[in-house]
Amino acid sequence: MKFISKEWFYALCIFLIPLSVGMDLPGGASISFPGELMLAVLAGMVAFQILSKPLSYKKILLHPLSLLLLAEFIWMLISSFFSELPMVSFKRVIMKGIFLASLFVFTIQWAEKDSNKIKYLFLYALGLIIPVVYSEFRHYWLGMDFLEHVSLCKPFFDEHTIYGAAIAFVIPFAAVAAGNTQSLGIDKKYRIWIFALLILLVAGEYFAYSRAGVLSLMASLILYVFLKLNVQFKHLLIGLACILSLTFVFRSEIYSFTKSVSYQSNTA
């Protein structure tokens, strides 16, 4: 009898990724525990299945996107032989292979079931609850002056920009899920909990002071509006060209403004 199925192991892994903490290993290496360790185990399972039952993965592996990622992986592997720091490069190749096998190949296979198509996003969002609550509690305890404490999200995230990016990744999904529970096959009784999750994530993003995260959310909102208005692709290109043109024309002013911002993201 199996102690735990591969699907349950994957679900637990996705939930624990935001809760993982950095751990130093002998030789100067480090690992995010238990997330990356579980991903490595899952990648081993996927690799074994691909070798033993290649036909069951044929459709996934021969997809154009899979071939493109495989070409990139092979190029990384070849480049590592000519690296000035080969051990560092090969470690990166190994991690890339683990992520491709676990977070790409198996995620596609897992999402083939309709009931699983959005579960992994919910699992990741639920895993973020503890880091967000923990960070905001420390934020409040230290006087709500996050600019002086950009690493309040430790030990779950190294600093606030990564923390803000992790939250920004799931906010659009949570917002769509909160307003479209029926079309997504979510029971209406969970709507209030999804709204509560959305409010918590938005609060966490706001107090993360991550400009990149906020800008990405603004861009996703603009794209969502365009999609709802059925704006044609050529109009999107025209709008993008106008934005780039204005950026070029006012590049000096923009550069002067960014230089005037004294806050640095890497302040410890």
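That was protein one. Protein two is written in the same sequence-then-structure order:
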Amino acid sequence: SQRQLRVAEEVRHILVKIFQRGELRDPQLADVSITISEVRVSSDLRRATAFVAPLGGGETEGLLEAMRRATPFLRRRLGQELTLKFVPAISFYADISFDYAEHIDEVLKSSASR
């Protein structure tokens, strides 16, 4: 719905601001630039799924583990900024769309060179 899209985009903007300001104290997240490509919110607005990737590529499993450790802090900060009755529970997943796009690009280049 339109409301889900609006809330998802607002959550994404808030998360991006938190990472830009460097509010997280986790050493694994300190020197990493993170891309939050998309946030999806459930129809009841109680769950949010954020798709993240390290900017410029890199190892995502350690990044996801650090993000999961930071989830309580991030949820608290979301509660301070959002004007919703309930603050959505956040789950973080690796964004594979960049890898998939790169794979498609390689396939197209290899078929063009034939």
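The beta strands are 34-41, 47-54, 89-94. Keep this in mind for the problem set.
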